[in-house]
Amino acid sequence: MATIRRRNTPLKDAIAHATRAIDKATELEVKYINSFKGRGLFAKVPYQKGDFIVEYRGELISSQESERRRGIYHSKCTVFMFDFCWKERMWCIDAAQEDDSLGRLVNDDHIYPNCKMKRVIAEGKPHLCLFALRDIKAGEEITYDYGGSDWPWRKQAKVQETASDTLSSEEVPQSPSPSKMQAKVQNTVADTLSSEEVPHSPSFSEMQAKTQETGADTLSSEEVPQSPSVSEMQAKTQETSADTLSSEEVPQSPSVSKMQRMWMYMRTMTVEQHVGQGHKVRIIQNVIFHITHTHIHTYINIYNLTFRLKLYLLVMCLE
Ligand SMILES: C[S@@+](CC[C@H](N)C(=O)[O-])C[C@H]1O[C@@H](n2cnc3c(N)ncnc32)[C@H](O)[C@@H]1O
C-alpha cells in the first residue's frame, strides 16, 4: 500500500477544508448504490487511520430555526438536518440543500464503520467532520455509525439476511424518520468526540435529562427547599388554611371552657324541655354550633330559643 504523505495534522486538514468550504474532490467520489440506499461516498485513494475525510457541510442554524424548517420541509429533506450541541446549546447543520458537498451523502454502518464524526471549531464556528477510524482502501465506501439500534434499514437487513442468503444488507435499506435521524446522528457525535477535541453532543432527550440532573445536582438544599413528607404536607396545609382564613370565617371563642359548660347545660336543658320537639332540638344544636364559633351567630340564633334559654345565655355571656 502506497504511503500517504500528510501535509497537515488531521485536525488542521479538517480546519483548512472547513474554512474554505471545500471537499477532497479528487480523493472521493459519489456513486449510486441501489434504490434503497441511494448514493454513497467512496474513497478514490487510500486513507490512514485518523485522517480527515470530509465535512458534513451545510448551513449552520439555531435549534429554533431548525424546528421551524422541520415544520415546512419534506421528510426527505429533514433527514439531512444534523442537530448537535455546542456551547451548551443545540445547533443544526442543515444540509438539505442539494449542492455539491460530499459529506451529506455518507451512509450509515453501525457494524463496521470506517469513520467517525467529530465537531471541529474553525474561526469560531463549529463544523462536523468525519475522520478515519482505521485505514481505508481505495474503492471503499465511506461510512460512519449513525448511532442507536433501531434504524429501519438495519432491521430489514437482518430480516433479509435470515430470509435469504442471496440478499446483502446493502440491498434492503429504508429511509429513517427525520426525528430518528437526528437522534442517531447526535448520538454518534456524542459517542465519538473526545473531550479534548470537542464536547459531546447529546440528543435532545438526553439534553433534557442532563439539564434536569445538572440542575438538581448543582442546587444546594438551601436553594431548593426539600419536598416535605405527606404528613408534613398535611400539617402545612392545615397551617396554611388556618393562616389564610380571616377572623370572619373562623372567629375565636372568647372562653372555650365557659362555652363548653354552657353547651352542656343547654344540651341537657334542651333535651329536658324540648323532648319530642325535634325542630327545637335542631335549633339548639345550631346555636351551640355557632356558640363554639361565633358570638354573632349565637346571638342571631338565640332569637329562635325559648325565653328561658335566652335569659340563661345572656347571663352566661355577661359573667
Ligand atoms: C444522509 S443521507 C445519506 C445519503 C443518501 N444515501 C442519499 O442518497 O442521499 C441518509 C439516508 O441514506 C440512507 N441510508 C444511509 N445509510 C444507509 C444504510 N446503511 N442502508 C440503507 N440506507 C441508508 C437512508 O435513506 C437515509 O435516510
From TrEMBL:
Residues 26-147 form the SET domain. Residues 157-253 are annotated as: Disordered. GO terms for molecular function: histone H4K20 methyltransferase activity. InterPro entries: KMT5A, SET_dom, SET_dom_sf. One of its GO terms (cellular component) is nucleus. Residues 184-195, 202-219, 234-245 have a biased composition (Polar residues). Pfam families: SET (PF00856). It comes from the Eukaryota. GO terms for biological process: regulation of DNA damage response, signal transduction by p53 class mediator; regulation of transcription by RNA polymerase II. This is Uncharacterized protein LOC114851772 isoform X1. It comes from Betta splendens.
